[in-house]
Structure formats: C-alpha cells, structure tokens
Amino acid sequence: MKRRQFLKMSGGIGFLAAGAAIGPFVGPAHAQASGRKSIRIGMSVASTGTFAHDSQSGRRAIDLWLEQVNAKGGLLHQGQRYPVELVVRDDRSDKQLAPRVYESLIFDEKVDLVLAPYGSTLTAAAATITDRNDIFMMGWAVAADSVFKQGYKYIVNGGTTPVSRVPEVPVQALKRFGGKIISTIAVDEPYSDALAGSFRATAEKHGLAIGTAEKYSRGAKDFTTILNKAAAAKTDLLCITSYDTDMIVMLRQMKENDINFPAIFSTFSQNSSILALGSDAIGLWGQSNIDPRVAYAVNLGPTAAQYLDAYNAKYPNGPQSDINSAVAFASLMVLGAMIERAPSLKAPDLKAAALDLSGHLTVLNGTYRIDETGFQTGYDILVIQNTAKGGREVIAPAAVATAAPLFPMPTWDQKAKM
Amino acid sequence: MSMVMQSVPPAEAARSVRQRAPLFRLHRASIWIWCLTLAGISLVAVAIPAVSAGVSFWFYLFQWIALASALNLMAGTTGYVPFGFAAFFGIGAYAAAGLTQFHHAPTWAALFGAMAAGALLAVLFAPTLRLRGVFFSVVSLSLAIVLRSLIVLLPEDVAGGSSGITITGRHDPILLYYLMVAVSMGSVAIATAISVTPHGLRLKAIGDDLHAAQIIGVNAKGLRLAMWVLSGTIAAMCGALEGLYSSAIDPAAAFNILISTKAIIYAALGGLGTVMGPVIGAVIMTVTDELIWARFPIANLFILGLIVSATVLFFPRGIVGSLLQRHPRFRRWFF
How many DSSP H helices and E strands does chain B contain? Predict the structure, then answer.
C-alpha cells in the first residue's frame, strides 16, 4: 500500500468512524415534553446479576399498578387524565451501567420522572445523574440511610422501611416479652451487615444488652462455634441477617447440638425454603410489610388483602408477591398521588407534593412519612412468627397483632413433639 | 546454551537490541498519524460536555480504554494475564472514597492517595511475578479475593465494612470526566512511548521467552515490575475516579471480577500486545454494548455474548493482531 493511499484511507475511515460513533451519543439537553399525551416514567430492572430476582419481583407489582391506573384512564394531572407509560431498561445489576441507563432515560426517552433501580448502591449511582438533571426519582427499594445524607434534592423513599428502622418493632417486642440480650450473625455483605449493625444500635437505644456480634464470609458452612458463643452469652433474641440457605444450615446445627434460643429473627423466616423445614421452623420470627389480616386505615389504594387478591389474579401461576412486590406497589400508589397533587412534573413540584403528602397517606403497608431529605420515617415492619402446622401469626406491633407470641419459642425437643 | 552465553556477552547483546530496536519496522508516519489521532480524540473528548447532555457513556468509554490499555501493558507485552486486575481498581476506589468521606480530602489528594495505594499494592503483589501462565493468573485472582475480604474486615470508619462507602460530599462529574479522559489518553500515550522505544522490544522478548530474554541481557525482573506497577497504578486511578463519579462503592462492585474479565476481553478483542488493539477493542465493545442494551432490553447480554464469541472465532488474535497476521504489509502502519 502506498503512503498516500494509506493516508487518504485512514483519514476517511477516521472521519466516518468519528461521525458514526459520536452520532448516537450526543444529543440536546433534556427538555420537558410539551403538548403532553402521557406521563412517561423511566426505570431500570436487572435481567441478570445480584439484584435480578428482587428487581423483577418489584417489576411485577409495578406492572399491576400500571394496569390498574391505565384501566381508569390514567392519572389526573393538571385537571386532565393522562395514561402512564413505563419505559424500562436493563441495568444488569451493574453499578457502572446504572448512570448510563438513567442518562438514556432522561435524554433519549425524555421521561418525566424515574423510579429508582433496585438496591441502595445502584440507586446512589443513578441519583448522581437524575439529581444533577433535575429529575425526580422515587425510590422503592433503597434501604440504606446513607443515600439520603448525600444532599440529593429530588429523591424520595416511597416504599421501603429503611435498614436503620427495621429493628425497631422486633427489639421493642423483645423488650415487651421480657427479653434482655440480643446477638447478631451477619454475612459480610452490605445489607446483612448494615441490618445487624442496626439491630445492635436499636437494642442499645432501648436499653438491651448485646451478647455477641458475629460476621462470616459467604460460603462458610460451620456455624457451631458462633452459635455456641451466642448461646453462652445467654442470648434472648438471635438475629440472623444473612441468606436463607445459611439459615437452614444454622438451624440444622442448632438442632444437632441442641442449642436453643428464646427467639430467632430472620428476614427469611417465612420463605418457602425455611417453611419446608416443617416443625423445625416453628417459633421463628420473620419480617413482612403486609399481611392480609392487618388492615391499616388505608386511605389510598387497596388494603393488603385486596392487593394480594389482585396480584394473584394477574399472576395466577406465580411467582407469589413478596416483600419487594409489596413495597414497589406501595411506592407507586404514593407516586400516583404525588403526580396528581403536583402542579407540574418538574422535580421541585413533585418533591414539594411528596412533602405535602407526608403523614397523610396510608397505603397497604402503613403510613407514608418522609423527612426533608426524602428519608422514610413511616412504614413499620410486621413481625411474623411461624406456628405449628405451617401457620403464621403477626406478633408485633402490638396494635395489629393477630396472636400472642410463643416466647420463649419451643425447644428442639418440644418441636419434635408438635 | 553456555556456548551462546560465552560467545555473546549479555551486555553486548543488550546493546545490539538497543541499536536495532527503535522503529525498525514501523513507518514513521504511522506514529505521527496515531499521535494525531490521540490528539483528535482528546479534542473531541474536551468538547463532549458542551454538545452532549450526559457524559456517563463517555466517562465509562474512556475508563475502559484506560483499563484495557493498562492491562495490555502487563498482559500484552510480558504475557502475564492478571485475573485479579480488579484488585487495583478496587483499592483505588476505596482509597479515594475513604480519603474523601472520612478525611474530607480534596479530589486531587484523593486521587494521589489512590495512585499511591495502587503502586503500593503492585509492589506488595510483586512476588507473584515469579510465577508464570495460569499459576500467576490464579494467584492474582486469589489475592484480589483476599484483599476484598480484608477490606470488609477493616473497621467501618476506615473502609465502611460490608456496606461500603457512600460519598456524601458531591464531586463535579464534568471534572471527573476530564480527569478520566486524561488518565485514559495518558495510559495510551505511555503504551505508545514504550512500544516505539527499545523497552517495547525487550518486553516482547520477555513475553516470547523469559529465559532467552534474560540470556541476551534484558533486565526481565525490573521491566516486569515496572510494567506491573504502572499497570496497577493506572487501574487504581480508574477505580478512584469511578468511585467518586458514582459516589457509592461496596466490596462487591469495587472488586467485581467483571472488571478484570472485561479489561482482558476488550484488550484481547482489539489485539493483545499491540498499542492500538486495546483502544479499538474497548471502543468497539463499549459502543456495541451501548447500541444493543437500549434496543434489546431482554436479549442484550445474549447478543453481546454472540458478538464476542464470533469476534474471537474470526479474529483469534484480536482485530489488530489478526489483521497484521493476514496482511503483514500493514505492520509498517499498525502497531
């Protein structure tokens, strides 16, 4: 190849490549749509990775909300009903992809507002983009308190009980039942570790003692030592904040070594994998945000029982509604009310509406209440206890309890006879 | 072998390499075109925030160019493929986030700290360079896992524990974007400079046959260590900038094995051992990924997997490597 030919060719290719590469990725700044025909809400869902299961659980409830709202002609905004469009992108549970996803939703799809991705890390990464571009973000699975300490103006937690507030109800319940010592076991992952830390902080706040605070690496299989240490510390409530698979191993080892605790709490106690243990699962405390028997004084949307009926009608072959589905649905109920109240879909107006409605909306999982930063201060969790023959009872808060607690819970010998 | 050593003294052999090495087969215009291309990319990059509403795509594009080029400095030239490359990215992210969040350090100090942490980690991991091939790759991966566990076990006011660090002080994303462009172009410029000097040839000699390179007088240990430190420092800078840009880091994201594998795939697709290859590989794969994930929300990863597989099948030495293999005359122009 001659030098001149090469120079011409490389120049031409370079010019074309630059044009082709830059073209799709540069565009005008975001502008709110004029001549509105619909309300466009953007969100990301993980098709793969750590958050895939949980974010898709939320997506199913969001689709249910969308179907119900659009069946009524949409949301009433500025005196007119607009259908709601949901623009969904895949974030692959990837923190590096989340900012790109939300930029695309804002600039390419021209969405009016966004729902946060699943999880606090992805939400924090996406919020850097949405807040800078003055786009309102409704968080539905953002449990970490730290996200609301970053100074973001336009993010609101509309559905989840923050990780620092989850322990309030079980710790107060333990105190009411006469328990004095709490121990924690966590796997070294963000939510698990943060929840265990919150349990200890809440226990100390309520004057309870800490027995042991153990942490293990993912993949550990022998928990006998840390279980014995917790028992030796005369633990009244053992909080296991790791995975259900690990909890199954721990329960087996407790049974083999006849290690008993008056109460054991885990987020997963009502998972089908734990309930499949039969009588071994009796007495365990778990966490839920809704229960069909608990009907708050709902003034917005369906009660928990009505929501579950609607969910099961839409998804008759499963998967069942879980904690993520319920919080996503609750967030969308609140978001709908904000959109109807706000004079425009601009972020400051939506945030003002979010603050105005704080404390005035009770949805399926309780009363929505936020502070100035958008941090959720409402939505207490329900403590559910497994009973004999696969039954489940709400034991706290006392105001909505469906049964008295089994406290102390049956020992392994007693469970064997139940 | 001893005959060879006696007949060609190492010092003399090294002098011989030094004399023959510079630009012995590259067309001088090729280097100028490449330098002008880099200058052009830099100019376009500077203008991006003015014409594009968002910079995230560009930020991550330049991050992958930097990471692929940094990895290529080690893997492409010396043949050491570090599957634990994410350790440098992670330590950089943690150093910058920790300094910013817990010690209120300004951006420049956080980046300097990250750079120092990356270099220090590279020196600490240097004994692994005694190993070769798959053993080195496995050990480097293990060390990355160990480092991640260590970070988790550190006190929460040092590294945030399992929850990671959420940076409450806000940084200007445009400034961070420009810094990422600078790191990226800097790493490509370093790779270019190394490639066209005798060091490039010495490194290739190490990659081809370590013992033979040592016999002809190449300071294999010193060069390998230099590349290792350089490579790790650039990766740590990328981690620091990404951590500040996204404002949230946790052990799983900072030490994600995908950071290592993506850098290896991007560099290999472009052409390991070439300067242009990692840049081309990173640009093609990042742009392709961007084009398909928005258009195919469900099947985007499947399509991306097919594209990677097809590229490897048709260009087993990477795009630039295969081009040079099939058309040797291009060796005067592509490097």
Answer: 17, 2
In whole angstroms, give the CA distance from residue A319 to residue A316.
8
B43 touches chain A (CB under 8 A): no
The rounded distance, in Å, linking the Cα atoms of A33 and A26 is: 19
To the nearest whole Å, the CA of A11 is away from the closest chain B CA by 9
Q: Does A27 touch chain B (CB under 8 A)?
A: yes
Range of the domain at A322: 19-162+293-368
Best CA proximity match to B180, nearest among B191, B168, B169, B171: B171
Q: Report yes or no for ipTM above 0.85.
A: no
Residues 149-178 of A with CB under 8 A from B: 149-151
Rounded to the nearest angstrom, the minimum Cα separation between A19 and chain B is 11
Q: Which of residues 184-223 of A touch B (CB under 8 A)?
A: 186-194, 197, 215, 217
User: What total number of domains does chain A contain?
Assistant: 2
| Helix ranges (DSSP H) in A23-104 | 52-71, 97-103
Do A85 and A190 share a domain, yes or no?
A: no
| CATH number of the domain that residue A410 is part of | 3.40.50.2300
From CA B223, how far away is CA B78, in angstroms rounded?
9
Interface of B with A in 158-217 (CB under 8 A): 161-164, 166-168, 170, 173
pLDDT band at B172 (very low <50, low <70, confident <90, very high): confident
Chain B residues touching residue A14 (CB < 8 angstroms): 37, 40
What mean pLDDT, rounded, does chain A reach?
Answer: 88
Q: Looking at beta carbons, which residues of chain A come within 8 Å of B245? A: 99, 128
Average pLDDT estimate for B313-335: 79
pLDDT tens digits for range A244-282: 889 999 999 999 999 999 999 998 888 878 888 889 999
Which tokens go with B151?
């970070």
Interval A126-183: pLDDT, tens: 998 999 899 999 999 998 888 888 888 999 999 899 999 999 999 999 999 999 999 9
pLDDT the model gives residue B17: 47
Residues 327 through 366 of chain A touching chain B, CB cutoff 8 Å: none
φ, ψ at A372 (rounded to 5°): -60, -30
Does residue A192 sit within a domain?
A: yes
Q: How many residues does chain A have?
A: 418
pTM of the model: 0.80
Domain shared by A128 and A73, yes or no: yes
Domain co-membership, A151 together with A272: no
